[in-house]
Fold this sequence. Notes:
This protein is of the alpha+beta class and 98 residues long. It has helices at 27-35, 41-47, 74-83, 90-96; strands spanning 6-10, 21-22, 50-54.
Amino acid sequence: IGDAQAAVPVDDRFHHPLATLYRANVLSALRQLDARDELRPRLLFDMVETVRVPVETLRDVDPNLDTLANLNTPADYFAALSRAGYRCADSIRAQLLQ
């Protein structure tokens, strides 16, 4: 990311803040946004030097763009583990499905 403070994957519709690479020095900008109750991640990208990375360039290392998948439910999580070749321990699976 060179000297930038963040590198955010972007596509035609979205910035992907959960898949963004952040440098530790963005903390002061985050605190400023928090103090103003401005919690949209995109505001941070406008405050700090940010490299916008087209998601298509990620396909070289992540052909299915699994790094951008939403994992909002236990089923999403289990599917992601399976795609990566892992299995969730039965005890953890049971806890997540309670």
